[in-house]
């Protein structure tokens, strides 16, 4: 049984726990309400009966109900000549008293669909409560008769039952909502666990590559098959690559943890884009790319450092894959970075911003993943699509 519970997916465990928690909470509240209300009804009935019979209320509560009276003979039959009329309930109470009544004690009588609290006493013991409409009975007649005061509490109990039904409906709805919330939360936890597992796998794989290359250069020098200066250059290159990868992973971790704080400023976007292009000028010239800038004037609010890092990632990716053309345009609402060259497959376009997406050139995809996280942190949107022979990455700007 424990093995089955352990094998149950997280989403279902959270769904069951959520539904059980809601059911227990509402069940406890309903039980507490029933105990309180039933106790309150009993105490109020006892006070009202004590006052009706002329006794002092034992619980100190004021009387809230007016009791009805019955006069019974020594055989617990209704005294017909002393009352104006008797209802069916009176007959049922008289029959109940004949078998179950205890003198001078408040009792609860369940008579089919009617519930009453009643108290029976000898008529001569409660002279203050002897109803006037029964007439001036002699002391001898009073000793041979019983006086019953009763209160019908069926309406109050019906209200409690209605509240119980309402609690039941609330419990069903609450359990369903809690189970749904548990499923969603569990799915997110499972997705986070799966993402963390893949992250560890991908990080270990990506770090092994430059480490293996650096080790290869070192072993080549050790075996005398490569000059030391050439091997040193290779080791430096691989360690730089590893350092960039570690920086990117740490950047994603900070974004995921919510540790990145935006410091927005109003900037002229055209100037901002050109500043981001300057570090790539050498790579653009080396590839002989044609750069087209179509930047409309306009200011936007952004964090220059974070958005600059994101835009540089997108621009460097475009320069790396472009063959002849790099185009950057801004129309006042959207910033678009487009490049020609080898295009991804249409089904792969939606995955360009996935973490650790390995491209044909060996890129890990972390740069574009970081760009998307930063853009969304600004409240912008980042997407990509193919337009003819161009791959267009679109920043939907919030002006």
Structure commentary:
With 399 residues, this protein is an alpha+beta fold. Helix content is 53%, strand content 17%. Helix 2 (10-52) packs antiparallel against helix 5 and helix 6 (228-256) runs parallel beside helix 10. Strands 6-8-9-11-10 form a 5-stranded mixed β-sheet. It has a 4-stranded antiparallel β-sheet with strand order 1-4-3-2. It is elongated. It contains 10 helices and 11 strands. The chain folds into 2 domains: 13-161; 265-396, Heat Shock Protein 90 (2-Layer Sandwich).
Keywords:
alpha+beta; 17% strand; 11 strands; elongated; Heat Shock Protein 90; 2 domains
Summarize, please.
By secondary structure, this protein is an alpha+beta fold. The protein is built from ten helices and eleven strands.
Question: Could you outline the blueprint of secondary structure elements for this entry?
Answer:
Blueprint: H1 2-7, H2 10-52, E1 68-72, H3 88-100, E2 106-111, E3 114-122, H4 139-143, E4 146-152, H5 154-223, H6 228-256, E5 265-268, H7 269-277, H8 281-287, E6 290-295, E7 299-302, H9 304-321, E8 325-330, E9 334-339, H10 366-377, E10 381-387, E11 390-396
Parallel strand pairs: 6-8
Antiparallel strand pairs: 1-4, 2-3, 3-4, 5-7, 8-9, 9-11, 10-11
Helix pairs in contact: 2-5, 5-6, 6-10, 7-9, 9-10
